[in-house]
Amino acid sequence: MFLNCLYKYKCVYSTKRQIPPRKIAVLHFTRRPYPVDPAFFGQNFIPLSLSACSRSEQFREYGMKNHAFVREVPKCEGIRKDMEEISRVRFNTELHFGYGDPRVVLSMVKGMVDEGYLPVLDFHYPVQDSRLMVQLDKALREMGIRERVVIVNHLHITPQYIRAIPGDNDIRGGVRKTNAGRILQLEPALQVSDLTIGVSEDAINAFRRIRYNQWDNRPDGALLRSGDLGEAIGERYCAILNGINPNLYTPRTEDEKEEGRASIGLNPKLGITASYVARLDGLKGGRTLIEILRRYNGWYGGNRDEWGFVLACADIIQPTTRLGYIKDLLKLKRLIESDRLKVVIDISKFTRGDPRFRDAVIRILEYYANDGGFEEIRKMRIFGGYVDTPIQGVTDVLLHTAVHEALGLALVEANFSGAGVIARKVGGIPEVIPTNKEHDLKVYERGGSGRYHTRTVSYSEHGILIHQEGAEDSELDATIFMQIMDLLKPDPNGKGSVAPIEVRDRFSEATMTARYLDAVIRANEVRV
Question: Among 172, 257, 365, 386, which residue has the fewest nearby CB atoms (within 10 Å)?
Fold first, then answer.
C-alpha cells in the first residue's frame, strides 16, 4: 500500500489503516475551462484522470479533495451550470472560475490551511503558465504559510518537445527564439516547486540531464546552461504515468464495433479501419498523416481499398487554428465520398460513458468552438458526429505519427481496447508499447528512383514502433507507415491483442493516484 510511507509521520495508527496528519486538497491549475477543455480535446492530462479517480474508495477514505481553477468564466449561465455539474458528478471536483486575481487563490489556500488541509498546488506545464507559480510562492511566504503548502511542477512535455514547438505546422528550420524563452521560463518554476513530476520516465530523465548541461550536445545548448537549474531540480523529481479508466477502455465485440462504425457513417464493407487520436500539427506528425491519406485517396485496387480512417481531434472544433490541415482533409474527395474517411469528436473521456452528460458536453464544446468554420464542417459528409465510445475501441489499429511524445496515452487506450498500434519510437512511447523483436525494413523511395532506405522497426503483438532517424520526412515516413499497413489483416475474432495485466496495472487510475499521493507526502516530508 502506498500509505506505508506514513510510518515516518506522527500519525494515528490502527491495525486497519493509517491516517495522514492532514487531509490533502489538490488544486489543479488549468488555462481554460475544466474539465471540458476543447483546446486539449483528445488528451488525457492528469487533472482529468486524477479527478476522475477521486471518486475511488481510496480518496474518500483519506479525505482527498480536488479543486480546479479556470481562467475563463463562461458568459452563459447555463454553460457554467453544465460545467459545474459535470465536474461535481463525473469528476468529484469543485470548480472555481476566474483565478486571474491571485488573491482569490491565496484566500482559498489560507482557508484550507486553517481547516487542517495540506493544499497541493499542481501546475500543469505547458497547459498553465508557470509564472503564476512563482508569484504565489512569494505571496505564500509573505503570509507565513509557505511551509504548509506543497507546490508541484507537472511536466507534460520533454525538453525536445519545447525545443520543437512548431511554427507554420513545421518542426524543421531550427529553434525559434520564443522556444528558448519557454525553456528558460521553467527555471524559476523549478526553483520554487517542492516536487517536479514528469508523465514518463523519458520526460523526467530528460529534465534531469539539464543538471549535467548535456542537452544532447545541441548547438543551441548555450541557451540552457544554468548551474542553478540543475541544483533546483536536485532529487525532487519522479515519473508518474497517467492513468486511464479501465472500465471505459475495454475490448468490444465485433457487433459492438460494427455498430460503432455504423453510427459515424463509415462504409460497412471496409475490411480494416485505422484511427488517429491527436491534434493535427507538426509535433504530432500531421504532414505524415496527410500524406498517408492522400495516397490512399488516389489508390485503386488491392487491399488498400479496404482501409477506412477515423480522425478524433479537436481541430475541427477550432478549424481556423489548423486551417491548412483541414483544407488538406477536405480535398480527399474519393475517401470522403466512399465513406472511408470520417472526422469525429470523441466525448467519451468527458461523459465517462454516461449518456446523461452527452448533451451537456456537446453544448459546452460548441459554446467554446470558434465560429470560423465549425458549423460548415458539421454539415459535411466527412463529419461523423460525436461519439460516446472511445474511438480506439471500434477500430482495428491506431496510427500515431507524432515526432515528439512525452508519453502518448492514446496508445495505452488503444491497447486497453484491443487495437494495435503503429507509431514512431520516440519519447515515452516505448514505455507504453513494450516490444521484444526487431526487423530491418527496406523502404524504396517513391518515383521509381531505385534508391532505398533501411529503417529498423521494433514490434510485439501490441504494436509496431518505427525507429526515428533525424527530422520528419513526411514522404519517406508515409511510405514506411504504408508498407507496414500493407502487411496487416483484419483480426478474425475482432478483439485484437489486449494489453497484458502488468501494463494495465501500470496505467490504471488507482496506480496513478497511489503514486501521486506518495510523491506529495514524501515531498512534504523532505521539506519539513
Answer: 172
